[in-house]
Design brief:
By secondary structure, the chain is of the alpha/beta class. The protein is built from eight helices and seven strands; from the N terminus they run βαβαβαβαβαβαααβ. The chain has one domain: 3-Layer(aba) Sandwich (Rossmann fold), CATH 3.40.50. Helix 4 runs parallel beside helix 5.
Length: 251
């Protein structure tokens, strides 16, 4: 049996990815703070299961507890596990000198520490139990260029890219066959984009540019982007370990 874990599953890209995985008859375990409506019915229609776990990814102890609960739920006949670290926060959007320490700490926990912890734990589980593991973490073009007002977001996404490349080297050295990659989805029509557009010019100097993306209908649909991610994820033989994939190369 194949299982997938998807964070941020209740909306946006996470919801789209979970839906598409269920349609491929893969059991899905979703992590989010709010309910993902409709996925249980879709799972039933495809003769698989969907289980949801409420978790605040900003709390590392809660993340570890949730991972333990998940490991106790899947079948002993598991043959492959896909992990999609999708959940992320954009706040704080502001000049670095105005950022509150507590907001910065939460941001780093959600965007960097949580996906690293989950990848580490499930890689170890795969190695000890003998099933294959494919891990994907959603990154951003902001990882590769500085953007005024996004010091936290640029930094955490850049750290995810380096983490991905490093873990890939480790797995290749050990010859495990496990793979990890990062996926840059471009600009999508999501709640995160709404938050970005709500920023003031003093906080985020590029806010008008992001408003124009919405006005010009330049934001991609999450189902379309999710389809690209799922195609990469489930075509294990062709995944380049450690690669930073970009949706623009596929659409």
């Amino acid at each position: 049996m194949k299982y997938a874990i998807v964070t941020g599953v209740s909306k946006g890209l996470g919801y789209s990815v979970a839906k598409l995985l269920l349609e491929q008859e893969i059991h899905v375990m979703g992590i989010s703070r709010s309910e993902a409506s409709g996925l249980n019915k879709l799972a039933e229609e495809n003769n698989v299961t969907f289980q949801q776990f409420q978790c605040d990814l900003g709390d590392v102890e809660t993340v570890e507890e949730t991972c333990s609960k998940i490991k106790n739920q899947w079948s002993h006949e598991i043959s492959a596990l896909y992990l999609v670290n999708n959940a992320a926060v954009i706040d704080p959007v502001d000049q670095a000198m105005n950022t509150k320490s507590s907001e910065l700490a939460y941001h780093v926990q959600v965007n960097t520490i949580a996906p690293m912890v989950m990848t580490n734990l499930f890689l170890k589980e795969a190695s000890s139990k003998g099933f294959s593991f494919i891990g994907a973490t959603v990154t951003s073009g902001a990882a590769e260029r500085p953007i005024s007002g996004w010091s936290a977001y640029c930094s955490t996404k850049a750290s995810i890219n380096m983490y991905t490349q490093t873990v890939a080297i480790e797995q290749d050295e050990r010859g495990t066959g496990n793979k990890v990659f990062a996926f840059s989805p471009g600009i999508m029509d999501t709640g995160m984009q709404e938050k970005i557009r709500a920023a003031s010019p003093e906080e985020f100097t590029n806010v008008e540019t992001f408003k124009s993306y919405k006005e010009d209908k330049a934001l991609k649909d999450t189902d379309t982007v999710g389809g690209v991610l799922v195609d990469i994820l489930t075509n294990e033989a062709n995944i380049e370990n450690g690669k930073i994939y970009n949706v623009k190369d596929f659409l």
